[in-house]
Amino acid sequence: MKIRKLETFTNEYVGFVRLTAENGSTGWGQMSTYNSDITAAVFHRQIAPWALGRSVMDLDALVREIPEREHKFACSYLYRAMSGLDTAVWDLRGRLEEKPVAALIGGTPGMLRAYASSMRRDITPEGEVERFLRLRDAHGFDAFKFRIGSECGLDRDEWEGRTEAIVPTIRKALGFDVALLVDANSCYSPARAIEVGRMLEQNGVAHFEEPCPYWEMEQTREVTQALTLDVTGGEQDYDMQHWQRMIAMRAVDIIQPDVLYLGGMARTLQVVRMGEAAGLPCTPHAANLGLVTLFTMHLLRAIPNAGKYLEFSIEGPDYYPWQEGLFTENPYEVTAGMVTVTDRPGWGIEISPEWLAKSSYQKSELAA
Questions:
Q1: Contacts of 225 (CB under 8 A, 6+ apart)
Q2: What average pLDDT does the chain have?
Q3: Domain architecture of the chain: domains with CATH
């Protein structure tokens, strides 16, 4: 069954892909968020021409061949665009076989433990505690991630003393029955990361994400080797050679691929298998409530080296206004700290017609 038409519906922040096969069957996917209007241009210029006319069963070959065909443009945008093709193919397959994507990749529908993931650095320790307690009481979260340092901060904090204040403040307020995770977003030199890491260990923090500039794997490995808590990373990485090297050198304790940064589910499954062979758990990056979190939910229900949690963004319309009104039904209900992958075919969602009507539209189609 060949791919006949590829359509994109985008704004600046989010972009959906609708794939239509020659028999009229359709599937929905998503390109990676942010600058999605630019990503859509890449999609129609550099992804669609190679995909049209190919079988929907050729996905593994396509995600290998497209970067080869576009080898002069080995960049993040190519993979962010290709993720829209990949995830639409998985949805179409699931709809045709009347199975959820989790089942297509060897898993089952069901529940997942989620951690409440804060994206904010402009919040005081007391403010973060207040909303964590509120979320615990309302939704039963028993794991929380918050930000330390400053993004790509060259050892600077968001403001002086914030990191040293927020870690013990949250631990004291939530108690030791709650799992705590932190994200440094490439802030630290190895020496400073190790110093901060010792403080994290003293406060029972379990997960230290991206302590050093993510592109400096030797620096991250130095931190990993020095600390007993789990050092994690990989969300930004899309190059398979980089992944092979990261895993071979054990730069991190837990791998964190992002399905949409990496180029889709097929390539993410390649990384998952690399991690499994090396004995490394996989806790993917999923930092918003577009479709990336739903894709990650299906993935985690199917892989043998799934980590302990699903990342679940707690940011609402004040932080991510573009998340509002994307779907006809909310796929992200959290109860007792758990989310559920349903048995609906494909991804189990429909994109809101109202949202689509307001989006920018482009299509690529086989000639009649």
A1: none
A2: 97
A3: 3-98+353-365 (3.30.390.10), 103-341 (3.20.20.120)
